[in-house]
Predict the 3D structure of the following.
Amino acid sequence: MYIAMNRFRIRPGYEDTFLDVWRNRDSHLEDVPGFQTFRMLQGETTDEHTLFISHTTWESKAAFTAWTQSEAFRKAHAGAGGSREMYLGPPQFEGFEVQI
C-alpha cells in the first residue's frame, strides 16, 4: 500500500472556499486502477494559516505513479487551483510506503 499526501496552507477565512473546490471537482479517481480512498484532513488554524492535507491510499506506489502520468490526473487537476489568493504557497507532497 502507498499513501500520498499534499499539505496545503490556506489563508484564514478561505477554508470554506478551499473545501468547496475539493467537494465540487471531478477527481476521476474512482476509475483509476489501484486507487483505494481519498480523505481531506483539516488541521489547526493559526494567525497565518489553516492546514489541510489531502490523503489518498493506493494499492502500490506504481499505481500512484501511473495515475500522476495519466489523462485522469490532468483532468482532475485542471480546475483544482480555484482562487489562488487562498493559498500560501504550493502544496507540499509527501509519499509513504506502508510497511506493516
Q: What stands out?
A: The first helix runs from residue 15 to 24. The chain has a mean pLDDT of 91. The longest strand covers residues 35-45. The chain has three helices and four strands.
